[in-house]
User: Which sequence fits this backbone?
């Protein structure tokens, strides 16, 4: 569990450091994101693949919380927040589950 927790910290820190200047330079990601998808090519394929991974992440979070209102709200945040959100979520849940991987994955 220590490795998972450390990985979550590294992911969150790396994304925060990388995202801050990008967000300042280009605050609206949607035109660039969907422009690449509609334009075809590998960047568009990557963005579409990534969007589906975000969808699965959101569905997993919603399912893990049994479709509760809080779980549905977390699902939306998971979809929009990506790995930055998921790293914090898994880090917190790893302590709430007392290091039990089964509880962490299944809820």
Assistant:
């Amino acid at each position: 569990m220590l490795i998972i927790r450390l990985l979550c910290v590294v992911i969150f820190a790396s994304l925060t450091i990388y995202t801050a200047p990008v967000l300042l330079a280009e605050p609206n990601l949607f035109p660039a994101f969907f422009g690449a998808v509609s334009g075809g090519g590998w960047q568009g394929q990557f963005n579409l693949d990534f969007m589906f991974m975000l969808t699965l992440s959101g569905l997993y979070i919603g399912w893990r919380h049994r479709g509760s209102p809080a779980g549905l709200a977390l699902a939306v945040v998971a979809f929009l927040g990506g790995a930055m959100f998921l790293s914090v979520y898994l880090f917190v849940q790893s302590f709430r589950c007392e290091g039990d991987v089964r509880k962490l994955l299944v809820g």
About this structure: The first helix runs from residue 2 to 25. The chain has a mean pLDDT of 95.
